[in-house]
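Case study 2.
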Amino acid sequence: MHVHKPKIPHSLREFGAEIGVIVVGILIALAGEQLVVWVHGQQEVADAREALRSELSYDAAALKAMAAQDDCADARLSLLEAWGEGKARLNSTHLASMQNRPLLYTLKTTAWEVTTSSAIAGRMPLKDRLAFADVYDQLANEKSHVLDERRAWDLVARYAGKAALTADEARNLNADLGSVRVRDDDRRFNAPYILRAIARLGIKPIGPPSDRDPHQLCEQPV
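Prediction:
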C-alpha cells in the first residue's frame, strides 16, 4: 500500500489554496447537514398539519352532532320542568341513564398541545400558527362549557327512581335544570363561531363521532 505524504506548500498562494479546499469541504458538509435537518423539520411540520386537520375534523363533527341533539334536549328539559312543577308524569327510573341525556362529546386538543410543546410549531409559518391558535383557543373555552353542561346533567340523575318530588326536591330540580340550560346556552352560542373558524382552514367534519343517532333522545321514553 502506498502512502501519499502531504505536500508542503512552497508559497503563500499554495497554502491559501490548500486552506480554501479544506474550508469549502467543511462548508459543504455543514450545508448538507443543515439540509438534512431542514428536510426532517419540514416532514415533521407536514405530519403535524395532518394530525391537526384530522383532530379538527373530529371536533367539527362532534360540535355538529351535539347541535343536532339540541331540539331533543329542549323537549327533555321542558318535560322535566313540567314534572318538577307537578304538571307532568314520567317514569324517572332511567333518569341516570346516558340514553336519557344528550351525548356531550369530549373535544380533542391533543395534537395541538403536542405541536406547541415541541419545536414543530416554530417551523410553521406565523400565519398558520395564528390561524390554528385561534381555533384551539375557542375549542379550549368550548371544552369547559361542555364539561360544565355534562356535570349539570349529572345533577339531574339524582332524581332517578322518584315517583314524586317533595317541595324541596322540586325547587332543587328547577335550579338544576336552570343550570343545565345556562351551560347549554353557552355551548350553543360558541359552536357556530368555532365551526366557521375550522371551515376557514379548509377542514370539513368527517363522519359522526359515534354510532348514536342524534335524535335518539327524542325517542327515548322517560
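The chain is about 70% helix and 0% strand.
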